[in-house]
Amino acid sequence: DAPRVAIVGRPNVGKSTLFNRLVGKRLALVDDQPGVTRDRREGRASLFDLDFVAVDTAGFEDGSDESLSGRMRAQTEAAVGRATVAVLVYDARAGITPLDRHFAGWLRRRGVPLVLVANKAEGLQAEAGLNEGHELGLGEPIGLSAEHGLGLADLYQALAPHL
Ligand code: GDP
Ligand code: MG
């Protein structure tokens, strides 16, 4: 069976953009509205010579809509439960938020191998937020720009030992 890479994190950090870049087709719905990817999406993906199944998730929000939040949580749990490795994405421009901490703690308790990605890292304004990622205690954050295709070689270096 192909290894599975689950892309997780709070809404609007760029998970679907990363998924689309890895899968190479516009399978995932990308939107400015937080949490718009309500269904889990997966597709055959590659990164240089790595082949795997990428799984996009909506992320769970501590939002007002209880049932939607519950569905997001369920699909994130399902994706991580079957994952070879999880990629936790945060927004380097926003820095680490309480919800990012929540995800990090939740994933750590699961014991799933983790790669931490600081997305939207293409500009100088991302520098501080990139460094904040160390606070999560999940190792060196990988600076990435899913939108501009930057940092993919570093992502490769981090993923390769797990796949
Ligand atoms: P998701 O909710 O985590 O799946 O996030 P999306 O992939 O839907 O992206 C949310 C927003 O962030 C969209 O407007 C994207 O165009 C934007 N975005 C995604 N990746 C990047 C990036 O690398 N840099 C910048 N500046 N914006 C990005
Ligand atoms: Mg999405």
Automatic annotation (TrEMBL):
What are the EngA-type G domain coordinates in residue numbering? 3-163
Which residues bind GTP 1 per the record?
9-16, 56-60, 119-122
Role noted for this protein: GTPase that plays an essential role in the late steps of ribosome biogenesis.
Q: Family, per the entry?
A: Belongs to the TRAFAC class TrmE-Era-EngA-EngB-Septin-like GTPase superfamily. EngA (Der) GTPase family.
Quaternary assembly: Associates with the 50S ribosomal subunit.
Q: What is this protein called?
A: GTPase Der
What's the source species for this entry?
Answer: Sandarakinorhabdus cyanobacteriorum
- Describe which stretch of the whole protein the shown chain covers, with first residue, last residue and complete length: 12 to 174 of 467
